Amino acid sequence: MPVYESDVCIIGAGITSAMLAQKLSELRPGLSINVVEAGRSIFDFENRDKYRERMIKYGENPWPGDFIEDQAAQGGIARTMAVGGQALHWGGTCNRFSEEDLRLKSMHGLYVDWPIEWDELERYYCEAERRLGVSGEPSPFPEDRRTQPYPMKSMPLTWNLIRLKEWGDKSGIPFQGVPQAKNTIPYDGRSVCLRCKTCDICPTGARYSPDFTFKRLLAEKKITLHDHTLIRKLVHHDTKNDIVAAQGVRRDGSGSTVEYRARVFAVASGYTWSSHLLLLSKSSRFPDGVANRTGQVGKYMNGHAFTSAIFELDADVYPGMNPQYGLISRRFFRCAKDKPYVRHDLRIWEHPREALRIKDNNGQMLFGDDLVNDWRARNKRGRARVRAYYDVHPSLNSELTLDPSTRNQWGDPQPKIVNRLDDATQSRAGITKEHIHGVFAQLGRANNAKILSVSDGGYLDHPAGGCRMGTDPAASVCNSYGQTHDHENLFVVGAPTLPTAGCTNGTLTFVALTLRSADEIVRRLGPAQPRREERRRE
Ligand SMILES: Cc1cc2nc3c(=O)[nH]c(=O)nc-3n(C[C@H](O)[C@H](O)[C@H](O)COP(=O)(O)OP(=O)(O)OC[C@H]3O[C@@H](n4cnc5c(N)ncnc54)[C@H](O)[C@@H]3O)c2cc1C
Ligand code: SF4
Questions:
Q1: Measuring CA to CA, how many Å separate 328 from each of 147, 253, 388?
Q2: Which of 16, 90, 328 to mutate to test the pocket of ligand 1 (most atoms within 8 A of CB)?
Q3: 3-state secondary structure of 453
Q4: Which of 231, 269, 278 is the pocket-test mutation for ligand 1 (most atoms within 8 Å of CB)?
Q5: Which ligand has the nearest atom to the CA of 493?
Q6: Following CA atoms 432, 434, 439, 442 in sequence, which dihedral angle do they give, to the nearest 10 degrees?
Q7: Which end of the chain has a smaller Cβ tally under 10 Å, C or N?
């Protein structure tokens, strides 16, 4: 079996892995870093236009072969497993959480506090925004103060968004353009956004995706990337608690086994596969898997719930103007301590109106001017989509478990995720609904708006958890740096470490926490040493 040795072995090649590898290679230029990814590399930027065209014409997945047939989580919400991870597809929305997310217990007597100070996280938000390239404008709320400006000015609002912002402001709720990892100036070698509205695959490179970082790190020989390689088990030392190896299988058709040895292992496998790998790594000394002495791995799986509404209103909104860009209000990110606890973001987008049709309500065919007049008549008023992501807290048994009834070709049980909310969250469900419907009604009172429909989301978005951070090993898997309580040289980074998922998009927070982990990993590795080449043994 080939054995690869390096200083650091990173498992997974999504956005958190890209940021970790990049920062480690900058902090310790001599470090040897192996990045191991189960899926394939899709490094053909020159083909993006073609993939984009097929997506538009035929609705095809613009990232061909970005998933693994027999690796699938029951209850998971995305299947991408490839170099770049889910952020190949992401919309690039980069909202920060607020201090309340870290201080639920001390501010509101709810759930737990995170073991990290807001001011410290804020510094890492600045770093994350710089590395990803986020365009945005400061929030009007003093609590959202920033220590550094956004690296790029915000995207100009479209005609539609100006109309919709006027509507929101008139209702008394201030809105602004949402911060995004999309270039408004040439940035980091990538182009400016041309507002071509296919952000699922960006043909210009204006929207950040991790494949850019990996390609650059590879070209500069700062990392070694082993794609098509599924890690199936972490192996600990015979007598000590250190992790000594990550064992996997090549998915290149050979099915051959492979082993990675390193001084530090960083599991950057996302919210599903990080807990899954720890649970799979059973041994006689650790019968419930590694980092799981107190049975916390896979627990407290979280995400935010959401409610959406479609509005019709007096505003000239013409569908199709960069519709993936939208507005946000941070007005409800915090709530008064003497009021029922409800915290949420609020987003607005243009919403497509009635399509052209060839028959009217009576079944008569429409031709020429009649066809256009019918369309105009049905589209006199503008439409908007409004959505609130709201904060909910998981119970201990909101969990990821191994499902023995579903196995991959190597015989590994696949993960099953069941989200459950704690009693306090469940008991305020009515008040939460009432509050959000009240906010929709407030918007409805401006511009003669009418709510056409309201719907609740059927899943928790921006999922996280499973390897919760904390100070008490009985109630958490790792400390605030992602370093596991049980194994000093094993780190879990990003999404799995979050105790709660806040009330807005989570990836900027996953990245900020990962960049903080990088500092700790480097501290653990000690002073810089001469560059160690990755070594291979048969
Ligand atoms: C359509 C879409 C739109 C989105 N838009 C936004 C947005 O606008 N804003 C936002 O904040 N978030 C957004 N998200 C979410 C965001 O993409 C994810 O939060 C983020 O990419 C997660 O990154 P990650 O590094 O934690 O994990 P992942 O992206 O899941 O990467 C983990 C990687 O690890 C690999 N891996 C797992 N297990 C193993 C193993 N055992 N061995 C080897 N490799 C392994 C996987 O194959 C995968 O490539 C969106 C997601 C989707 C799908
Ligand atoms: S709108 Fe901008 S970010 Fe989106 S695909 Fe087009 S160029 Fe890329």
A1: 21, 47, 10
A2: 90
A3: strand
A4: 269
A5: 1
A6: -170
A7: C
Instruction: Please give the C-alpha separations between residue 249 and each of 79, 151, 280, 318, 419, in angstroms, as whole numbers.
Output: 20, 41, 14, 52, 30
Angstrom distance (rounded) from CA 195 to CA 238? 56
Nearest to 163 by CA among 449, 354, 439, 437: 449
How many other CB atoms sit within 10 Å of the CB of residue 408? 16
pLDDT digits (tens, 9 = 90+) for 291-332: 999 999 999 999 999 999 999 999 988 878 899 999 999 999
Determine the 3-state secondary structure of 226 from DSSP: strand
The secondary structure of 271-288 as a DSSP string is HHHHHHHHHH---SSSTT
Note the ligand closest to the C-alpha atom of 52. Answer: 2
Which residue's CA is minimally distant from atom 3 of ligand 2? 207
Question: What are the tens digits of pLDDT across the range 356-378?
Answer: 789 999 999 999 999 988 887 77
pTM for this entry? 0.96
Cα–Cα distance between 262 and 248 in angstroms, integer?
14
- The answer to whether the beta carbons of residues 274 and 463 sit under 8 Å apart is no
